[in-house]
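Q: For a teaching handout, I want to show students what a protein-ligand complex looks like in token form. Below are the inputs, and the small molecule is orotidine-5'-monophosphate. Please produce the holo structure.
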Amino acid sequence: MNREQLFEQIKKKRSFLCVGLDSDILKIPAHLKETSDPIFAFNKEIIDATQDLCVAYKPNLAFYESLGVSGWESLEKTVHYIREKYPEQFIIADAKRGDIGNTSNLYARAFFDRMDFDAVTVAPYMGEDSVKPFMTYLDKWVILLALTSNKGAFDFQFIKNDENGEQLFETVLKTSQQWGTGDNMMYVVGATKAEKLEEIRTIVPDHFLLVPGVGAQGGSLQEVAKYGMNEQCGLLVNSSRGIIYASNDTDFAEKARAAAMEVQVDMEELLLEAELL
Ligand SMILES: O=C(O)c1cc(=O)[nH]c(=O)n1[C@@H]1O[C@H](COP(=O)(O)O)[C@@H](O)[C@H]1O
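A: Here is the structure, written as tokens, with orotidine-5'-monophosphate included.
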């Protein structure tokens, strides 16, 4: 999917919500555990219940890899199901990959050839040759970690370069713009660091940002939109636990829909305020 198509979906759905499919076998409702593929059964119901309220889904690979072969099968089935039934959805592999070029090539093959994801999250630490292999596919995206939502973000990401006074996350944003464009690269910026979005927008005014950290991590959607929205919206705001575990009973899908709708209604208001609708 390209940037224009993504913006079209945002306008059509009146939403820039990404639903995180962090589907934990220990947290899904008990009645699903009797089915042959509980994780897929859970995802399928969550997807059917939320697809008109969101523009993207983000399975986090850890939740699938932790189950071995069956987890990988659930993931493949989930991506296939979204592609077949809701082809307008943007699908992100939250895998946080990145390795020497030769190896990143194979990661890219896994997510873009073997499975039909639109985007993969990539760590910038190993530099250009670790990131570029993901950008050789038409209309596929790298989502590069820039400023993350967690406490550990303060360990490295704010370290200042003695020579130019730049913080590490700023250097990531600036340098990586030589590797890709706003048509094949997005950045992760945590909603818990929303106050930094104003500064970030001076460096990357046009790029889309994937913003996790609203809901369970306490980030503010309003703050994110205030400092981060651009003329194409430029935001995909992710919520995982806040939506998919709204209930862990037989009404889980219905409750997930209600939770997603609450976010979508706020997003619609923010899009209207920004005169994007
Ligand atoms: O790359 C990510 O998606 C990510 C980056 C980041 O800085 N913080 C962050 O929480 N995430 C992911 O976003 C999701 C957040 O989940 P909830 O906190 O349950 O909404 C998880 O899958 C995280 O791994």
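A: Two things your students might notice: The two ends are 21 Å apart (CA to CA). The chain has one domain: 3-273.
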